[in-house]
Amino acid sequence: CAEGYFGQPSLPGGSCQPCQCNDNLDFSIPGSCDSFSGSCLICKPGTTGRYCELCADGYFGDAVDAKNCQPCHCNANGSFSEVCHAQTGQCECKPNVQGRQCDECKPTMWWDPEKRFCVSCGCNPIGSVTAQCDITGRCVCKSGFVGKQCNLSRQVHRQKEQPQRAQPVLGSPQRWGVSSSSGCPRGAYRPAAPPETFGLQSARGCIPCNCNSFGSKSFDCEESGQCWCQPGVTGKKCDRCAHGYFNFQEGGCTDLIFAFFEKVQWIGMFALFIYHIIARKTKNPLKRNKAGACDCSHLGNNCDPKTGRCICPPNTIGEKCSKCVPNTWGHSITTGC
């Protein structure tokens, strides 16, 4: 029988019949249907079964009529498995978690990134407006109460709290993320409130952090608007190299001295060899000028006190150290080539 058909035409009365795979089979793939039994062997992605009549594990929907099998997308942090209900798509949620994809904490719960599960808000019923807290676990306090759970009286606790900076949950949807203690969404901050407000939120709106994507560790920032910079990077937005660093790129800047010693191990030896050869062949060494300084092309005008020859920076040659040795570039009067 041809591809997409099955049967035994060689027997008396035998014939070839179409494979019944609910249109969930690609007949252009050789061997996708068993030529003797008619079993569907290679179903389209997301479907399974002898006749490709079911949604595969990790998918849900209707494989026969609607043909809409789609991934479950169960949240890895909030569900027990990647497999969901074959018809409804409901994932199997862990305790205190809800939602079809198990990506939300139940009311009066919040996601603790350190414990990696939903924990109770624990809002003080006397000092809090409601039992619900925000995604950092901070409750909404009544007038006269402060603290993360509104369990402190303002009369005896007049200093602003300094909550620890929470960390985002890697590999999870945005709703698992963490906002700042000011109530602003991630990537924004609220200007600090005046001291007389005792730590209550400022009436000003949230301001975007606008952290540089290359120079910052995340798009979050401190309550002052200062972004979290990569090594060797500075600036409120982490948008430039700090002093002594160069090569601004994703992940931070390169230490100038470290990069120099790392890259000139063998080039430096070769440059030193060339320098000695040229030095030996130089018959008219440079003389000091009337002011007593050498006429060299580098910062400091360092030269040999006996011969008057310039003491060249790394990877530079010439009577005045004004040229780069072969295979080097970027002449600088301070660092050489």
Question: Can you describe what's shown?
Answer:
With 337 residues, this protein is mainly β. Among the domains are: 1-71, Laminin (Ribbon), CATH 2.10.25.10; 216-258, Laminin (Ribbon); 265-324, no CATH class. It is built from two helices and 26 strands. It has a two-stranded antiparallel sheet. It has a two-stranded antiparallel sheet with strand order 3-4. The longest helix has 17 residues, at 265-281. The protein starts with a strand and ends in a 13-residue tail after the last strand. 25% of the residues are buried.
Number of strands: 26
Strand content: 15-25%
Tertiary shape: flat
Low-confidence stretches: 157-180, 194-203, 283-292
Given helix and strand content, the structural type is mainly beta
* Major sheet: arrangement of strands: 1-2
CATH hierarchy: architecture of the domain at 1-71: Ribbon
| Percent helix range | under 10%
- In CATH, the homologous superfamily of the domain at 1-71 goes by the name Laminin
Question: Termini separation (Å)?
Answer: 75 Å
Instruction: Report the major sheet.
Output: 2 strands, antiparallel
What is the rounded Rg? 36 Å
At the fold tier of CATH, the topology name of the domain at 1-71 is Laminin
Discrete helix count: 2
What is the CATH C level class of the domain at 1-71, in words? Answer: Mainly Beta
What's the SSE pattern? EEEEEEEEEEEEEEEEEEEEEEEEHHEE
Q: How would you state the average pLDDT, rounded? A: 78
